[in-house]
Amino acid sequence: MAHWFHRNPLKATAPVSFNYYGVASSIPANKICNELRSTRARLLEMFTDVTCNQEVMKNAADAYFSLLQGFIVSLDGTTQENKMRFIQNFKWTDTLQGNLPSAQQDAIFELISMAFNVAIWHTKFASRIAGKEDVTETEAKDVHRSLKVAAGIFKTLKEAYIPRLITPAEKGKDLESRVIDTYIIQCQAEAQEVTIARAIELKHNATIVAALSYETANFYQKADHTLHTLEPECSTKWRKYLQLKQHFYMAYAYCYHGQTLLASDKCGEAIRSLQEAEKCYSRAEELCKEYRQTKGPGTTAKPSEQLFFRKLGGLIRNTLEKCQRENGFIYFHKVPAEPPVLELKASYGLAEPVPFEMPPLNEQCTPEVYATFDLTKGPKNDKAKPKEEEVKPVKEPDLKPQKDSGCTIS
């Protein structure tokens, strides 16, 4: 499944020194600031390190977030806002809005933005592993889990952290509900794609494949609908991807539902189901071309070139021909004018987001150390003020496509 998933670019950010001069008035306070700077830099490096895996990413993220929470949670035993929360201005770009950064002087904005990038990394990690020539069962589980972890991060940010921002999320930006909801739904749908591939590989009952494909198609339709009011220049390419995946999995649903109908001696209905599968598959092929010709943010997937995509076309054609032969020799059923109504409900394989939890507060962040941050002591002169840092785009690794094996999970 190399180049099977559409991926938006990583968020970029300005460097942050955490140099607070006279404010951090003790050695332990300065040590926290130094470690905030180094753990942030390491986490940013991990986003583009092709050798980084899930465990390394979790450790790097936990190291930074455990310290950053010292600027967010209350450490003085009161319900008052943490006095360090608004000391630093953070700049981040968005995954759809190019290189124009958003800035907020809020540690929660930093936590949300960095965690958002961790989620994006998980989707890219899943895509990279799925693109290997021979995907093992263990690797398929890693892909499946990474997508559910990403969905869980997006979901937690939406429910627990974004509402806490003093400055509301801007329209069309990453933290706005339309965008973050689409990421959640897409991650769940792609996790279910892994399940469908395995169900087909292990020749599970056609009813299971049809139901799961139908649920997955509905996920993609919902994601597309969520984006439909977003500015076209930001969302058109992404929407084309969601639409082609919707039609592709509707084709799967009708194809396998047709097999179920044939097994139940409903040959006329089976033929009509397969005809509808052909129609959906043809539309998916058209959308693949439209998607590749559409300009917009993100790497371009190439689903129509994948063996997994092409195999479905052959399966639909062969199954339809079989149904037509059987109907001419045995059943002589009339083919309905309307396709069957798919009232399929998957009982297995539905992907739920993995709950995301912040790591415990770093043990260095004690009330005693916290008390040594003195906000009344700002920079002593203008020269001590840090200059405005520019936000440079993230240079992501150029991964070459590998030979596609048809998403076989060995």
Structural description of this entry:
This protein is an all-alpha fold and 410 residues long. 53% of the residues lie in helices and 1% in strands. It contains ten helices and two strands; from the N terminus they run H-H-E-E-H-H-H-H-H-H-H-H. Residues 405-410 have low confidence and may be disordered.
Question: Brief overview, please?
Answer:
This protein is mainly alpha-helical.
Give the helix/strand layout:
Layout (H helix, E strand, L loop, with lengths): L26 H20 L7 H15 L21 E3 L9 E3 L2 H24 L6 H25 L15 H25 L4 H22 L4 H32 L3 H27 L13 H25 L35 H4 L40
Antiparallel strand pairs: 1-2
Helix pairs in contact: 1-2, 2-3, 3-4, 4-5, 5-6, 6-7, 7-8, 7-9, 8-9
Strand order of the largest sheet: 1-2
DSSP, total strands: 2
Shape: elongated
| Beta-strand percent range | under 5%
Radius of gyration: 25 Å
Give the low-confidence spans.
405-410
Mean pLDDT: 89
Please outline the major beta sheet.
Answer: 2 strands, antiparallel
The helicity comes to: 40-55%
Key features?
single chain, 410 residues, mainly alpha, two-stranded antiparallel ribbon, 53% helix, elongated
